[in-house]
Fold Sugar phosphate isomerase/epimerase.
Amino acid sequence: MKFAAQENLVPGSTFVEKVKNLAAYGYEGIELNGHGLAERLEEVKSALTDSGISATCICGGFRFGFLFPDKDEREQAKQEFKQMLALAAETGATGGVILVPIFGPPQLPDMSPWKTAVEAEEELLVEQLRELAEYAGQQGTKVILEPLNRYETHLLNRLEQAVHICKRVDSPHMTILADFFHMNIEEADIAKAIKEAGEWIGYVHLADSNRLVPGLGHTNFKKGFAALKEIGYKGWMSLECGVPGDQGKTLAQSLQFMKSQL
């Protein structure tokens, strides 16, 4: 398993500085922010060349309108997501692009007795993911489906729910994200949830119970990391969390803590 951090967590006034700092702290990867990525593509590619740091995946940079009632909004969301998939390929971020289907409550109406709003959302989501996963495969990358906790979304709160969607999409270019912060809220047993999700896990986000860097809360990372080892996971584990105090010092210290939990 390899450690990375989201680019916005790393000190530095330029992307080049962020990459150099991250390498100095001992990390191997950087998770790219999709916002404005097309405009700074050459800067990103140049900074990563011979840096010892790899792009892991892309987070954000597109509208979250996949499950909105307006067809044009859904189509716009898909086109923007496809652009992120193409940029992932350009930057070498073969891990893929993270997709959260929706934030907050349902936007679709309840159409019972035909389908509830959530049932309709699932059907709509699966159809769109089939299209996006096919495009991801053409680009040589993947769609990373992320479950969130119940306070951020009503849909897909646990790993098993994301796996269910992936099985319906039935594509080798679909995978799920296991986020320790969200799992700490939603999963009865983080290690068990990881083992049951198994090969579907393609990316990992790290944050402690208080959403700060690992080591500053009470999450049992040792058991979670052991479960990832058991399923044969060898991919990226990226920080998505608060970094208090001196960012550089905190990032370096948290890395040492995480390695101790392996």
